Amino acid sequence: MRRPDGSAEHFTVTRKRQLMLVASVAALAFWAGTATTLLTRQPDELAAKERTLEEMMASYRAAQHRLNSAERLVGDIAREVDTVHTNLKTLAESNDALAKDRPGKGAPALARGRVVPEPAYDEKGQPGANEAGAVRDQVRELEASLERLRNTSVKAIEKTSDAAGSRIAETEKQISKLGLDPARVLSQAKRSPGLGGPFIPAPAGAVEDVSMGALVERMAQWKGVKATLQRLPLAEPIRGGYEFNSGFGTRNDPLNNRSGIHEGVDLGAPIGTPVYAAGDGIITLAEPWDRYGNTVEIDHGNGISSRYAHLSRIKVKDGQKVTRSTVIGLVGNSGRSTGAHLHYEVRVNNAPKDPVKFISAGRDVPKAR
Questions:
Q1: 268 sits in which H/E element
Q2: CA angle, corner 245, sides to 241 and 249, nearest 5?
Q3: Residues whose CB is less than 8 angstroms from the CB of residue 187 and which lie 6 or more positions away in sequence, other chains included
Q4: In the chain, is it the N or the C terminus that has fewer CB atoms within a 10 Å radius of its CB?
Q5: Residue 287 burial by CB count (10 A; 0-12/13-18/19+): exposed, middle or buried?
């Protein structure tokens, strides 16, 4: 190095300074190496942490999936319980309609399970033991409720079926009292519809399905019996007030005062009073007929017919289908008659029967209407 006057100046590096310089360089090299090593290892550590986090998330998702599956199971069981409960209410209503005089126990009230609270998760993402246990308890509770409802449903089905069978038996007794053959009259109602197919044994535990099948068959039979009763002339041909002027059987003739046979009953009512069909059927006669005057006859099937005479007006025609709500004519005084009234007959295989017995039987089976 030179001075300002141009002379040279020497700079001597002592050993101490050399050591300090070497130490500084070594420290710098160590720092650079350490920094490089840290920078090199950082991606690996980050990747390891990411893997740990992913494993925790996977564990969390698995726990959440198990919990969701348990909740879906609870929901499915609850819906099935509701379905059984609804069916039970329907069966109970059917049972009440068939046997009001024999009230049974109502459907048990359905105890709803508790709402499962949002489960807490531990540090590993697993649901807490208390929450998982609550789900299992609710599942067991609902399964027990469903089993109780199934048992009650089977009993209700059997009771309803028995009530229908009892009603059918009572109907057969009423028909017998009319001098009719129940087997013949109800043959159509008891006839099975077209059925078939291979026989496959019912699996174990299918008692409810078998009972339901038997109930459906019995109810179909009862429906047929009611349809048969609807066709029988069991209703009163005049609704409202009327006078019972003359009964069935032997009587003094009102015109010649001689003893004779009266094959029907005379129901007194003003001219123009509506006359209804006593049962569903088909009109086989709707015209003036000898001493009966304006006459209507209805075929009710099974050889049973009804006759309505002395009408002032006929409101149906031959071949027409009628029901108990059909007005077939109006009360009159046509034919061999002394005043306004309806001459009403019921015939079985063309033999006259007492109409009062049929009307009384109709009053004894009101649920068949």
A1: strand 265-268
A2: 130
A3: none
A4: N
A5: exposed
Give me 198's structure tokens. Answer: 């291979």
For 169-202, what is each residue's pLDDT tens digit? 777 777 887 778 777 777 665 555 555 556 556 5
Contacts of 268 (CB under 8 A, 6+ apart): 242, 243, 244, 245, 339, 340, 341
Residues 227 and 302: their CA atoms lie apart, in Å, by: 13
Q: Are 331 and 311 in contact (CB under 8 A)?
A: yes
CA-to-CA distance for 39 and 46, rounded, in angstroms? 11
Q: Is residue 166 pLDDT above 60, yes or no?
A: yes
> How many CB atoms sit inside 10 A of residue 303's CB?
14
* SS3 state of residue 215: helix
Amino acid making up residue 326: T
- Maximum separation of any 2 CA atoms in the chain, in Å: 184
